[in-house]
């Protein structure tokens, strides 16, 4: 299966609701590498890398997010696969 990366920007009520923590849990459960971080404008940004099916699964999850989140929009674009990523991290 092909390995891909997806860059996602998530807007709505996505900060202060454990969005990054639950994104990392979803990524790790699906054997993804990459990162997630809060942006100053209130959005969450993520890079999801791994097997295409697993990346698409977590990308779809971003549209829902954790229970306390209220996702308004997810803007995703394909990104170049980064072999240097070995884990999934929360960036502060």
UniProtKB/TrEMBL annotation:
Acylphosphatase-like domain ranges (all copies): 5-92
Superkingdom, taxonomy of origin: Bacteria
Enzyme class per UniProt: hydrolase
List of catalytic residues: 20, 38
Enzyme Commission number(s) of this protein: 3.6.1.7
The reaction(s) this protein catalyses: an acyl phosphate + H2O = a carboxylate + phosphate + H(+)
Hydrolase in keyword set: yes
Keyword Cytoplasm: no
Record key words, sorted: Hydrolase
UniProt xrefs under InterPro entries: Acylphosphatase, Acylphosphatase-like_dom, Acylphosphatase-like_dom_sf, Acylphosphatase_CS
Pfam families in UniProt: Acylphosphatase
Entries under SUPFAM superfamilies matching the protein: Acylphosphatase/BLUF domain-like
NCBIfam families: PRK14442.1
Family designation: Belongs to the acylphosphatase family.
UniProt-recorded name of the protein: Acylphosphatase
